[in-house]
Task: structure prediction
Amino acid sequence: MSLAQRLGHRLFVLALLGLLVGLPCAAHTEMFRRSSDTDAVSGATMKLPEQPSGEFVILINESLHQDTLSDWEQFFSGEDLPVIFDDISCLTAEGDNSGIMLARRLQAQLPENQMRLRSENPILLVSKAEAGLIDVAVFSKEMADALKLKSPERMKGITVITVKGGN
Result:
């Protein structure tokens, strides 16, 4: 095989590989969408989940957040704060759609992975809250009333915040 034939063969193989790999990638809609989206700097804002209406009860374990308790109280009350250097684990009651919606909205307002969110059986969650075995718990007022959540003065080591939702 002459030098020209080898060079022609290599060019043919490269062109064929370019078509086999490059054409599907170029035709893929995700590729076009990525190239037309705004970049990370100019498009860094994220749409928050909808603010649920009604009243909510938020429980915070004081012993786990001794240094940042006032910051978390302000955050849950809706005030803007600088960054809080403390991670939290938030529990909501299964079936408490308003409480879950508020918890998701709060989670979206924090930096990524700062707030872990999990739903639990409502009776088990109330038991944990009353025993002080929670980090943070979010309930709609209706769910808290239906579960007969103890009054704040009977839950030692737990700060209780009442928040009004939008709309």
User: Anything to note?
Assistant: The helical segments are 3-27, 29-36, 69-76, 97-109, 122-131, 141-146. Residues 88 and 115 are 5 Å apart (CA to CA).
